[in-house]
Amino acid sequence: MKIPTVERCCCFDLETGGKILGWLGIIFGGILSVIIFLVLIMVLPMSCEDITADPQLHQVLPNISNNCTVFKIASIIALIIILAMVLVSVAIDVMLVQGISSRNPGKIIPAVIIQGLGFVSTVGKGVLSFSGEGIFSAVIGGLIMFYFFIVLYSLYVKIRDEKKTVHNTQFSQP
After folding, report:
1. 160 backbone dihedrals φ, ψ, rounded to 5°
2. What domain range is 131 assigned to?
3. Is pTM beyond 0.90 here?
4. Which of 40, 68, 80, 149 has the most Cβ atoms closer than 10 angstroms to its Cβ?
């Protein structure tokens, strides 16, 4: 089955649309990284007394007093993993912008793969939620992610084919 391609991203050409997607990912990923880092800095010095003093936390986790250290360690590990994933995403978005600017399809393909995985995970999460809102948000989010996947894939194919054409014409002339 052949993946469909498009010529434009919304009202922009593919290159501009791809750069907008890349820069939005860099900006929002950078902001999210700072927020996660600040939360991590706030959680590290907290004692078990500070954590168990929160009455809202006791409503959600009634046995938090017994497992405070485990809760703190798990929270720190989760924040570090999330921060690492966001930083990898930012690095892939930087590669996307560089790949578009330098016309290097190899730097675009990681963004295509991540966008495709995001589409699959969004749809899967919605289907497994078994709720009307979850399925509705998965359909809307999935359609948007699928469209951006098609845009990035189209951009990859366009630049890849341009490279092939340039390469073939360089060596075919006497």
Report:
1. -60, -45
2. 103-174
3. no
4. 149
